Amino acid sequence: MKSMTWILLSSMLASSAVQANDSFGAEFSHFAGHTALAGASTYVVDQFWPEVQEPAWVGFTISTSVAFAGEIYDSTNGHSFSLLDAAVGTLGAAVGAYATDKWYVAPKMNTLNGDKTYGMVVVYKF
Hints:
Layout: H1 2-15, H2 24-48, H3 55-76, H4 83-102, E1 103-112, E2 115-124
Helix pairs in contact: 2-3, 2-4, 3-4
Signal peptide: 1-20
Keywords: Signal
């Protein structure tokens, strides 16, 4: 949990001085960020609220809401509303929510005779 807190805090500090534009890197960061947010939201809902029938929709809604809230915030603080940023964030939300709902990806570590092996576990839900 400490490492996750550190990652979140450092990413917020690193992004606080960033100036956005419509370059490939800027749009990719929106896509990747909203993919991660939707995936994390979908996973949390799936694990802690099993009564929710479609956790992917919840993850998608949370991530898309954050994308549009960020653009609305920007537009009220002297910047323009970027429809491209909102659209790329929405696309990332769709990919993250769907992938997390249909696929389960997790790191895996095994120790055998003092040797450690690291890998990824990928499971597809039918």
